[in-house]
Amino acid sequence: SYYQSLIGVLRWIVELGRVDICLECSLMSSHLALPREGHLEQLLHIFGYLKKHHNAEIAFDPTYPEIDQTVFERRDWTTSEFGHVEGKEIFPPNAPKPLGLGFVVRSKVDADHGSNTVTRRSRTGFVVYLNSALAFWFAKKQSSVESSSFGSEFCAMKQCCEYLRGLRYKLRMMGIPVLGPSYIYGDNQSVLANTTVPESILKKKSQSIAYHFVREGVARDEWRTAYVNTHENEADLLTKMLPNGDKRRGFVRRMLHHTF
Q1: Residue 137, H or E segment
Q2: Element (H, E) at 123
Q3: Are 210 and 88 contacting, i.e. CB atoms less than 8 angstroms apart?
Q4: Which of 74, 109, 143, 170 is surrounded by the most beta carbons within 10 Å?
């Protein structure tokens, strides 16, 4: 149909770098089966926005980012349930010898709890940087309904960690060195405390899989997590419908050039 063809065009535009409409494209894709007249109007509004701000550019900046190691403090996991794997990241056994300069992998993750008013499913969003270059962006509705923002944020953190594990594997299989752990920024203090403190205990069984998956990666030093203020978290752009203002424009300027 006409609506489906327009969604296909928007998806290609997002893949080509327009991260600023990634969330909007994801939201409108939820109505592919039975679109209404209002959905088509909103879709045309997105194309109007692209027509007005058509000269966006992504700069692939190879410079190494400044990582504040004090906020990514390495803790002792020997007394935890993951003491037997502490600092033992699993490397692919058949990977070629790494050559050249390596990458520092960073990510910012966020979730919008119960954002879908019909099913009350939350939405995951995260961005991934290789050195200072934006390499990947993701916005998708979660597959389960979470009863708290803690649960939705933990599911988002798990999805981000799963992608980072696959990315680190791909880079190593291409002979590219990965320097140190991946650095993940989040804005939920409870999730960060449960992932970074070895002595923390999870009492909710429903989040136990995400809990143990993320904690095991931290214990292996595959990734580390730290807090970032929500006003400094670009992943907000991929989970919440931000109105046109300083916050949205600031996030877009960090990832795209010449947009505003």
Answers
A1: strand 133-141
A2: strand 123-130
A3: no
A4: 109
